[in-house]
Amino acid sequence: MEEKNKQNSEKKLAAEKAVEFVKDGMIVGIGTGSTVFYAIKKLGELVQNGLNISAVSTSDSTTKLAGAEGIRLINLDKAVRPDINIDGADEADRNFNGIKGGGGALLFEKIVALSSVKNIWILDSSKNVEQLGKFPLPVEVIPFGYKRVLNIFKEMKYYPELRIKNNNPYLTDSGNYILDLHLEKIEDAGILDKEIKLITGVVETGLFINIADVIITGKNNSVEILRKEKL
Ligand code: 5RP
Questions:
Q1: How far apart are CA 40 and CA 192, in angstroms?
Q2: Strand duo 222-227 + 214-219: pairing
Q3: Residue 230 binned pLDDT confidence (cut-offs 50, 70, 90)
């Protein structure tokens, strides 16, 4: 319980620091998850106090939360290029690579991230890693014929597991399945990403390589900010 409280307080610190990067008039991409929740709350508070922003959501759950906070939402094709995108991650290394998709929103998150001018990740300190792979790597796959993809991963010794929710396959917002790969260690994220994406039936992987520009990690009562370049 104490560990959970610490994580939540670090998530909140990181999220509120990220919101400081948001300026009046910006289009803001908003990721998904329990860390982003705190960013949405803070943005909502600022919007109530007059901040003028539009936001692009990455999931149905974020759309609901942001809408309830009175944040104006526009769709990505109207926004084209959000100025800034704030998202969480499941693991991040110091080379700005990470694993996302624990919350199942990796596809829309990656599309919004790649469309955005700057990407900020917000983390609690348990998610900083030397090497990616302890967290199971989510891979979004088309339901049709997914067992073929599952078997390919088995043969590759990637230890795939179909994600289940309420006794049924978990469905993403696009109606796809997720296979979580229990890799333990990823030697070269770039090579792995390319290899997986060549398999027919795979929609996207949770490997986010060199997409984040700034990583904000809550560490006890403060934050560490890792910047790829000045923001
Ligand atoms: C959802 C994600 C989330 O950003 C990631 O799972 C982290 O979530 P949380 O902030 O709840 O720990 O990638 O697809």
A1: 33
A2: antiparallel
A3: low
- Select which of 10, 16, 109, 140 is catalytic: 109
Whole-number Å distance, alpha carbon 22 to ligand 1 midpoint, is 20
When computed from its CA atoms, the radius of gyration of the chain, rounded to whole angstroms, is: 17
Stated pTM of the model: 0.96
The single residue listed with the structure tokens 């910047």 is 227
Where would I find the beta strands (DSSP E) of the chain?
Answer: 27-30, 54-57, 84-87, 91-92, 97-99, 118-124, 137-141, 160-162, 164-165, 168-169, 177-181, 202-205, 207-209, 214-219, 222-227
Structural domains in the chain, CATH included, are: 2-129+209-223 (3.40.50.1360), 137-205 (3.30.70.260)
Partners of residue 139 on adjacent β-strands: 179, 205
Read off the pLDDT of residues 176-190 as tens digits, 9 standing for 90 and up. Answer: 999 999 999 999 999
Question: What digits encode the pLDDT tens for the residues 41-73?
Answer: 999 999 999 999 999 999 999 999 999 999 999
pLDDT at 1: 64
| Pocket probe mutation, ligand 1, options 35, 61, 139, max atoms within 8 Å of Cβ | 35
